[in-house]
Automatic annotation (TrEMBL), chains A, B:
InterPro entries: AB_hydrolase_5, AB_hydrolase_fold. It holds the Pfam family Abhydrolase_5. GO terms for molecular function: hydrolase activity. Residues 39-200 form the Alpha/beta hydrolase fold-5 domain. It comes from Cryobacterium arcticum. It comes from the Bacteria. SUPFAM superfamilies: alpha/beta-Hydrolases. This is Alpha/beta hydrolase. Keywords: Hydrolase.
């Protein structure tokens, strides 16, 4: 699903963030001070990486986070098994990595979070309208699960049913009025619910939840 | 992707097999003697279950296999976490179950194969143009991986790269001339290669590989 052009352009025009396009992913970084924390973020199936610029721009600006939004391989494999450092290499100055994803991308992110052999080590997991497909055996891993009350794919019931697959300390944030497509700027999606908040409102809620999660004391323990 | 109507109709008209539609899946069973072996088969993402009737009709007829081709839930969840007995309940007379899938459906089938808590127990795994997303820790499980030389999604390189995730005794069959879409009757698919064999030829090869796999001594040890 293609990215909404205006939403992406607004981020490209934002002087507080820089956007660079690499083979492995789109890198969204602060033009001000970087926090040293990065997020490898995996889009939902067939969603354009640029659809997530608006999702993360506020957090990048406010917290200094760097985000690598992964690009699919040329021949869209149905399930991407490239190792984590394929993507982290796009932002070599980051020294602490989280993984995350939207929709099916979150299922893949859970696998990165689970795999103790990952290089670099994973310091946290961020799910947007998503869930893990099997139990995470990483009881200490900080996890943030942001869901939408109107999500017709990752429904509130689905989020609740799969909550037990995540560590006991997981932070769950349900955004009132957000749909599955509220987590990216790519238009409506079959099977989804109807959002009752604007994209800007959804982005503000996502930014608030992510910024809290990234505040010192949660993911960042130093 | 919708099923090819003529291919499905030919199976519906075949007196050697019966097709019944249940809430959980489409059940393809022999009208002659059933072997007692069943396969829960998970379609590729957004592929109509009826696209796989022609894929399995020959094996059902020749070996007495029963196949439950799973249907997605009403709101197409991006990743289906319903337990295995959701589907096996559609064919209660089967006493030995295999799991399998095409494309992303195979990734889900691997998870069923991995999960020791499944009810019923899984006796084998069948992958069509697919692979597991993490290593199967079931060294004794019989696994059949059928791939296509012209598959542009689960490419021969991808099958080779992920071979080590499967048990050492896995049977690999590459069908010369088959594409990703040769494993179902649903037309062409973006990113796929161009098949150089007919659907009937692909089905005959799939039937031969599956029938060998299901012969006494492999999956069926009694």
């Amino acid at each position: 699903m293609p990215a909404d052009r205006d939403a992406a352009q607004a981020v490209l025009d934002n002087p507080a963030v820089s956007v660079s396009d690499t083979a492995a992913g789109v890198v969204l970084a602060p033009t001000g001070e970087a926090s040293g924390t990065g997020l490898v973020f995996i889009p939902g199936a067939k969603v354009d990486p640029y659809a997530y610029l608006a999702t993360f721009a506020g957090t990048v600006e406010q917290t200094g986070l760097t985000v690598v939004i992964t690009k699919p391989t040329l021949n869209l494999a149905f399930f991407d098994l490239r190792p984590l450092d394929t993507f982290t290499a796009a932002a070599p100055d980051v020294d602490r990595w989280l993984v995350g994803g939207h929709s099916l991308g979150g299922v893949r992110a859970c696998m990165f979070a689970q795999d103790a052999n990952d290089e670099p080590e994973v310091s946290g997991l961020v799910l947007l309208g998503s869930y893990c497909a099997s139990a995470l055996e990483t009881p200490e891993l900080p996890v943030l699960s942001i869901s939408g009350s109107e999500d017709g794919l990752s429904t509130p019931a689905k989020i609740e049913d799969t909550a037990g697959l995540l560590p006991a300390g997981t932070t769950f944030v349900q955004i009132e009025g957000a749909s599955h497509a509220s987590f990216g700027a790519y238009g409506a999606q079959p099977g989804d619910g109807v959002p009752t908040i604007s994209p800007a409102e959804a982005e503000a809620e996502i930014t608030a939840a992510l910024s809290d999660f990234l505040a010192p004391g949660t993911v960042i323990v130093d």
